[in-house]
Amino acid sequence: MTNILVIEDEDRTAREIVGALTEAGLFARHCADGAEGLKLALEGDFDAITLDRLLPGLDGLDVLREVRARGKTTPVLMVSALGEIDDRVRGLRAGGDDYLVKPFALVELVARIEALIRRPRGEPNETVLAVGPLRMDLLNRKVTRGTRLLDVTQREFRLLEYFLRHAGQLLTRSMLYEAVWDYKFDPGTNLIDVHIGRLRRKVDAEGEEPTIVTVRGSGWKFDASR
Amino acid sequence: MRLGELRRTSAFRLTLLFSLLLLGSVLLLFGFVYWRTTALLERRFDEQLATEAREIARTPTEAQAMALDTLIASDPHQDWRGGLFDQDGNLLSGNINSWPQTIVMDGESHDIDRHLLGLVRHGRHGDLRGLGLTLTDGRRLVIAHRADEVHEVRETLLRALAGGLIASLALALLGGLVMSSASLRRIEAMHRAAGAIRSGDLSRRLPADGSGDDFDKLAGIVNSMLSEIERLVGDIKAAGDNIAHDLRTPLTRLRTRLEGALRRGGPLEAHRAAMEDAIADTDQILATFKALLRISEVEAGARRAGFTLVDLVRLIQSAAEFFEPLASESGLTFTAEVAPAAPVRGDPDLLFEAVANLLDNAVKFTPPGGQVTLSLDEDGEITVADSGPGLPDGFKDALLQRFTRGDRARHLPGNGLGLSLVAAVARLHGFALSFDDGAPGCRAVITTERSERGADNVG
Question: Are residues A103 and B321, on separate chains, in Cβ contact within 8 Å?
Answer without folding.
Answer: no
